[in-house]
Each structure stands twice: as C-alpha cells, then as structure tokens.
Amino acid sequence: MTRSTIVKLVVESPLSIRGEGRGSLQEVLKVPIRTEDGLKYWPVIPATSIKGAFRGIAEVIGSSMGSDDPRRKLMASHKRERGKISHDDKNALNEISLKERELLERMGEGGSSYLEYLACPICRLFGAPGVAAKVRFSDAIPSSEPVLRYMTRTSIDRKSMKVKEERLFAEELIVSGEFRFVMIVDDLDSLEEELFNSVMAYVEEEGLQLGGGKSIGRGRMKVYIGQWESR
Ligand SMILES: [Zn+2]
Asked: Which residues, other chains included, contact 129 with Cβ-Cβ below 8 Å and sequence gap of 6+?
C-alpha cells in the first residue's frame, strides 16, 4: 500500500538555494505560488535537493546496518561516485527470483546492473538508472513568506588565496521560514522498511542540511514529519 505524509522544514541556519545570478547578485530560486493575497514569487526548495539529502543519509545508515545476510552486504557495499552507483558485494544477486534474473540477463550488460539496483534497499528507495524510486518527494514550498537577506561575500582566488576585491558579490539567502513538502512511499519489503524507518528517525532527530555552503554550516533545517496516510 502506498502511504504519504506532509513534512515541515524550519530554517535554522541561512539557506542558499541558487536561482538566477545577475552580475554580482546571486538570487534565491523563486517560483510563482498561489497565496491568499494572489500570486507571489516565493522561494522553493527543489525536490531533487531534498531527495539528495535523504539519500545521502540512507547511504551512511545503510552501510552500517549489518552484514549478516547477502542483501545487507550488498547494501553496505553501495557506493556513489560522481553520480555513478556501484556495489562491490554482489552475492545477494542470487536471491533475485529466477524469472526476473532470466529476463534481465537477456538484456546483457545493462541487465545485470538492474539486478543490483533491485536488490539494494538504498537503490530501491531512492532510485537508480532505470529503476524508479519507491520514495518520492515534491518541491518544498513556503507556508508563509520567508525572510530573505542579501549577504555580501568576497570571493577568494583559489590559486593565490587572495581576496579578489573586484569580485565582491551579494548572495540572497533564506534566513528564516517554514516549508512543506509531500513525501510518497510505495510498498516496502522488510529490509527496505528497516532502512526507511532508520532514515526517518535520524532526520527527525538531527534534521537535514540543504542547499549550498553545507561546509560553512548553511542550510540546517529542523524536520517535522506529519501523520502517515494510506492511499
Ligand atoms: Zn545500491
């Protein structure tokens, strides 16, 4: 059964979601949103950014969820480098039913990576090339008008490590606000459910970090998960 919920995000440290750059101004990504006072251009957090943060957490948790069965081993060996997913431990692939394996193996090279993606709970929850994600996210839109500020920054020349004075620019940031997005989850098997629940518990406890400048502490969000509803 598919279930869904509404998740609330509260900005805890300045959030940088880049939209248009105009000269030395870097604006926040904004889209038209229907509000009680008509159409407004308000910032949004793209679903891809939220999904990326959840997947990153799942990859860390998944690698430490034990290795006492082949699928857990496969999950622990899940790696993503420059967008490419691989698994070193492929013993779990024998667990995929013969019917599916026969079909996928007929596809040659590509077919065998489908097998990996289907058996790995991380790939199954968040998707892999040719395999649809079981967890889906909407963009997060503000529940009321967020507070935006321009912050001036100088850019540092990476070669000389000197400030390029002519490169002073202002970046627009979301300094406070509340966003909501919808999360839809398809039927999960028991190992996928275990991973999913651990990820949700972690996120509820620790929050999420979204957008640019994570290394300098930007984009920390408090997370409130709503009631789940079956549909
Ligand atoms: Zn995987």
From this structure: 85, 113, 117
Residue 19 token pair? 């939209």
Prediction pTM value: 0.88
Per-residue pLDDT of the chain (231 residues), as tens digits, is 899 999 999 999 999 998 877 777 888 999 999 988 899 999 999 999 999 999 999 999 999 998 888 889 999 999 999 989 999 887 777 776 667 777 777 777 666 778 889 889 999 999 998 889 999 999 999 999 999 999 887 666 667 666 555 566 789 999 999 999 999 999 999 999 999 999 999 999 999 999 999 999 999 999 999 999 997
* Number of domain units in the chain: 1
For residue 145, the CA-to-ligand 1 centroid distance in Å is 38
- Cα of 68 to ligand 1 centre, how many Å? 17
Residue range(s) defining the domain that contains residue 154: 3-230
The CA 78 to ligand 1 mean position distance, Å, reads 5
Task: Provide the 10 A C-beta neighbour count for residue 51.
Answer: 18
The residues, any chain, with a CB within 8 Å of residue 230's CB and separated by 6 or more, are 1, 2, 3
Ligand 1 midpoint to CA 124 (Å)? 7
Question: What's the CATH number where 68 sits?
Answer: 3.30.70
